[in-house]
Amino acid sequence: MTAALPWTAPEVSLETEIEVLAAEWIKPYDQAEHLMRARDWLVHLNPDATVEMRLAAMTHDIERMFPGGPRLDHRATEWDDPFYLYPHSLRSAESVGVWLGSIGPAAAEVSLAEVRRLVGLHEVGGLRGADDVQAGDSLSFLETLAGLTRDWVASGACSRDKGAQKLVYMAERIRVPAARELAGQWLEWALDQLPAEDGGDR
């Protein structure tokens, strides 16, 4: 039986000049929807999220828009492998820092150091909003990238079990209680999107 689509966080309008600029910057990225939805989920979980938190959510994976970044072997690499996650996170933080340094006075709206810290922690969470950013990323992944995970399995990039492990990992790494409750519903739906067998159709 196909799992019903769970409740989704409402779209949150862009409230500051720097968020508008960031949305334009990330637009060419093929997973820009995931980044924007991470921001929506973040604000749902924490309506008082700072501009730095919102900006981190909507740019957290941006290093993948640029060539030369760390590579992930979907078949062999563990999903929590620090030798992939940390280079990815820190390269994204550096990319955001370079972008902020290039946009002029609008960057004065935010703390560069804080945005970089939050982006650098988006995979693992942490203090002062980092857990919220990670939770937003996780929920957005289950919502917007379950189809990508399905494609990994269908194409043979990884096994069905490995794809399922990715989805479970994204749900179980969440520390924010309200987000964990939502993630359970999204995990059931996302797992249901996977092919029935490796390289097959559901």
Keywords, please?
202 residues, mainly alpha, Hypothetical protein af1432, HD domain-containing protein
Classify the helix fraction into a percent range. Answer: 55-70%
CATH topology: Hypothetical protein af1432
Tell me what the CATH architecture is. Orthogonal Bundle
What's the total helix number? 9
Structural class: mainly alpha
Overall, the morphology is globular
Secondary structure: number of strands: 0
Multimeric state: single chain
What is the number of independent domains? 1
Radius of gyration: 17 Å
In whole angstroms, the N-to-C terminal distance is: 11 Å
Uncertain spans: none
Strand content: under 5%
CATH class value: Mainly Alpha
Protein name: HD domain-containing protein
Describe the protein in words.
By secondary structure, the chain is mainly alpha-helical. It has one domain: Hypothetical protein af1432 (Orthogonal Bundle). It contains 9 helices and no strands. Helix 2 crosses helix 6 and helix 3 packs parallel to helix 6. The longest helix is centred in the middle third of the chain and has 19 residues.
Quick structural overview:
This is HD domain-containing protein. It comes from Geodermatophilus ruber. With 202 residues, the chain is mostly helical.
Helices and strands, with pairings:
Elements (H helix, E strand, L loop, with lengths): L16 H10 L5 H14 L5 H7 L24 H19 L11 H9 L9 H15 L1 H10 L4 H13 L4 H16 L10
Protein name: HD domain-containing protein
